[in-house]
Design brief:
Elements lengths: L2 H15 L16 H10 L1 H17 L4 H18 L7 H17 L6 H22 L3 H24 L2 H21 L1
Length: 186
Amino acid sequence: MSARLMTKTAALAALCLLALPAMAHPGHGEHAGFLAGLAHPFTGVDHLLAMLGVGIWGGQQRRGLAQPATFLGMLLLGALAGMAGLTVPGLETGIAATVALVGLAIALALALPNWLGMGLVGVFALAHGNAHGLELPAASAAFGFMLASAMLLFAGRFIGQVLAERMLRLAGVALTAAGVLMMGMN
């Protein structure tokens, strides 16, 4: 990797980390607004890793934008279900499993048919969206977490396209390990 590319990648990673101080964002609930929604995917490590991971996997495959578009659409559908009070059984364990599974897909450089990859990330997104909708049921918060999710997906996509395959596979192993640890904590 060239020094210029490494600098750009480091700058992108630093920008992503700038949102972490937002952990002091206002409490969740009906009164949480756009900023709480915007901060939410950055402050929950499970959401952060899953969305970056989905983006990385999509970038690694070098396919079109159908996968991130599917993720965002299904994220919104899951959020609307959560806002309506519908809860996915085993939600927290399922969210942790999405981190492990997307990490495994990256580590194995798994190249599924496009329709199957979109279906898989769609299921991941339903779980994450449901959690977002349950925790942040205001429409203004939904705009925030949808924007933040898109940012994370496209940051991950960029990483997936510029990092060397060996580095991507190592990142996939790390994501898988993090997901398994999170599943054990639920």
